[in-house]
Structures are given as structure tokens and as C-alpha cells.
């Protein structure tokens, strides 16, 4: 009796290659005598998914030939797909491509440096038998700048009213043009934003008007060609009085009555800058119930009260952004007075003490007494 003896099949081997698109762990080490495996792997074409715009992600996608054999090879015997990205050099007539050495995955995030260039991706597939397809490639048109935007916007600063604050962020979307920044104040617990006139730079120097408020910076990114992106905002914690000043103000408020020596400018021509007139000495007296400014007496005159009033509204104290040594006391529309001191420190002390007494007199939040021009 005869037996039909068949040869042993090829021995399967477990292969771990770290390939990009693994389908199975068991591959043959030799090519089967099978028409399905006799054909080399092929890529019909390569195309891109994604926008050809800065900041976007382009993904190279292979088009598999429609034949059943190629589909079987891709599903059964695919081992590895390799990619290499390139960028263009030169103009259209003398264009060449340089490799982006580290860009060897199917996806690529378009960079600022790519604007105006073309990108190219080359692709090959290798099967488990070591056969490699012909290289196919796809090329983009000229990369366009992205829509302007600002990411990771934040405000840097120590949190006190004497500090300098800076807005920082990461811009993208072509070359940055004249982006706009506006500083504002926000009362804690309120959605309202109050613009700070003239404060439109990246740096902002805080003052006593900011005490109790959050500082807010609104950044509108603008591209070099004028295209605008969406405004983005960042804010601080509520601004506090600088500790040494706070200690001094608290001591004076506990006393209940304080006198300050100040200066009053007289006979200044209307068109002249502050300081052009004669500076005369005055005594500013403040207590829990009222404020008054007294012109001291002399050998030929008695002391004279030039302004006097309680803290009842519309009383307020105004600062001058362009002169940290000056402030204005406003009792009402008919009674107001500009005063000066030698240092910003003294000005801060006086303003905070007056506002502290006024706050207690009116039983209101300090924020409601901050006079802000809009």
C-alpha cells in the first residue's frame, strides 16, 4: 500500500519589528509558491490629508492598488512603511528638495519656516520577505501662513500695586504685525471690564488705582498683512498693596487723624506743563469724617481752609498716570484741588489713607472709590 508523503510546510517565525502598521506577528521566512505572494508590494499613489497651512498637520496617505493580490500582500505580508519629508529650496525653475532628517513619520506639523515653500513626502513599503516597493512621492503647493493666534498667554508680575507687569504669549500665523494689546481692570466677582486709557503696550506699571482689582490683558494677534485673529485674554489675581506701604497705611488709619505736608501749584499758565507755576506749601488734614486743605498762616495772615468736605459721594481722589507725584481731591463739581508731593511713595500713602477713611465712612468697598476715566 503506497503512502502519499508531503513535504513539511515552512516553519513560521515570530517577528517583532516595531513597524508602523503591523497586522500580524507570524510571518514566513521564505516566499510561498503562491501567486498571491509572488508579486512585489506596490503603492499606487501618495496623497495628503490636512491643510497646506502653517500650524496644521499634514498626513501622508498611501493609495493601495485595487487588485486582490496587492490587497492580500498589504494585509498579509506588509512589514514596514517608511516615510521621508523634504522642503523645497530655490524658485520654481531651479527648485530642489532638502531632507528634513528627523521627519520620518506619516504626519508632519507645518512650521513657520515652511511658509512659501513646498513640502514633499516620499514613501516605500517593505514586505516580510525583504522586498521593497518603488518610491512614490507627493508634493504640496506653496505653504500658506496660518490664521494669527496667540497661545499660552499669561501676565507676569509679583501681584503688588508697585510692580511692573508684562504680557507674554506664543504667536503663530505668519509673521506678526501690529498686534493690539489693551489693559483693563476687573472687579472680583463681576464680569465687567474697565479699560485703562492709553495702556496698550506689553508692559504695564501698576498703581494704587489697581488695588483690589484683577488686571486683564486682551491680546489681539495681527499678521503682517493685517489679518486679525481672535482676541485672547489673561488676568492676574487681585492686586494687593505693597506690604511696607500697607503697614504704614494701616498705622495711620488706626490713629484716626493724620496730617500731611503737600504742595499746591499756583499761577501756572493754562498751556504750561505742571511744575511751571509757583509751588506753595499746604497742610492736608484727614480724619474719619472729613478732609480739608489748609494754607498755613504767616506773620501777616491767618491759616485759611481752601477746601473742605466729607467723604460722601461724589467725593473721590484721582491719580495722574503721567505724573506719580500728583493727585486731585474732588469733594464735588465745585470743590476740587490738585496737590503734589515729593515722592511716589508719599503719594501712594496719602491716597490709600484717604480712600481707607472714605471706605469706612461710606461702608463701601474700596473699589467703588477708585475714580477711573473711561
UniProtKB/TrEMBL annotation:
Entries under InterPro entries matching the protein: AIR9-like_A9, PH_AIR9
Domain AIR9 PH-like: 265-361
Gene Ontology cellular component terms for the protein in this record: plasma membrane; plasmodesma
Record-annotated AIR9-like A9 domain positions: 150-235
Pfam families (UniProt xref): IG_AIR9, PH_AIR9
Superkingdom as given in the UniProt entry: Eukaryota
Protein name: Uncharacterized protein
Amino acid at each position: 500500500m503506497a503512502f502519499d508523503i508531503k513535504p513539511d510546510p515552512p516553519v513560521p517565525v515570530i517577528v517583532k519589528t516595531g513597524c508602523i502598521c503591523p497586522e500580524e506577528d507570524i510571518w514566513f521566512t521564505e516566499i510561498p509558491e503562491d501567486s498571491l505572494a509572488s508579486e512585489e508590494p506596490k503603492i499606487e499613489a501618495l496623497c495628503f490629508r490636512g491643510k497646506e497651512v502653517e500650524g496644521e498637520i499634514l498626513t501622508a496617505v498611501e493609495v493601495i492598488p485595487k487588485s486582490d493580490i496587492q490587497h492580500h500582500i498589504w494585509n498579509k505580508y506588509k512589514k514596514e512603511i517608511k516615510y521621508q519629508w523634504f522642503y523645497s529650496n530655490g524658485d520654481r525653475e531651479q527648485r530642489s528638495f532638502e531632507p528634513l532628517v528627523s521627519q520620518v513619520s506619516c504626519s508632519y506639523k507645518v512650521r513657520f519656516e515652511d511658509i512659501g515653500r513646498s513640502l514633499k513626502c516620499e514613501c516605500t513599503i517593505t514586505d516580510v520577505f525583504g522586498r521593497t516597493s518603488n518610491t512614490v512621492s507627493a508634493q504640496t503647493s506653496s505653504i500658506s501662513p496660518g490664521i494669527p493666534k496667540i497661545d499660552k498667554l499669561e501676565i507676569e508680575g509679583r501681584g503688588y500695586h508697585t510692580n511692573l507687569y508684562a504680557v507674554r504669549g506664543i504667536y503663530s500665523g505668519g509673521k506678526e504685525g501690529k498686534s493690539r494689546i489693551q489693559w483693563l481692570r476687573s472687579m472680583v466677582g463681576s464680569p465687567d471690564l474697565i479699560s485703562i486709557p492709553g495702556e496698550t503696550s506689553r508692559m504695564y506699571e501698576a498703581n494704587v488705582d489697581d488695588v483690589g482689582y484683577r488686571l486683564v490683558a486682551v491680546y489681539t494677534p495681527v499678521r503682517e498683512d493685517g489679518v486679525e485673529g481672535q482676541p485672547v485674554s489673561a488676568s492676574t489675581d487681585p492686586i494687593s498693596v505693597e506690604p511696607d506701604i500697607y503697614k504704614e497705611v494701616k498705622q495711620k488709619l488706626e490713629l484716626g487723624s493724620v496730617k500731611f505736608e503737600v504742595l499746591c501749584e499756583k499761577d501756572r499758565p493754562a498751556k504750561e506743563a505742571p511744575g511751571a507755576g509757583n509751588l506753595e506749601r499746604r497742610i492736608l488734614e484727614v480724619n474719619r469724617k472729613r478732609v480739608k486743605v489748609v494754607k498755613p498762616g504767616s506773620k501777616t495772615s491767618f491759616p485759611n481752609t481752601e477746601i473742605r468736605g466729607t467723604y460722601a459721594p461724589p467725593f473721590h481722589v484721582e491719580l495722574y498716570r503721567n505724573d506719580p507725584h500728583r493727585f486731585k481731591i474732588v469733594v464735588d463739581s465745585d470743590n476740587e484741588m490738585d496737590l503734589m508731593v515729593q515722592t511716589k511713595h508719599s503719594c501712594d500713602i496719602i491716597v490709600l489713607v484717604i480712600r481707607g477713611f472714605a471706605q469706612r465712612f461710606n461702608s463701601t468697598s474700596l473699589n467703588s472709590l477708585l475714580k477711573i476715566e473711561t
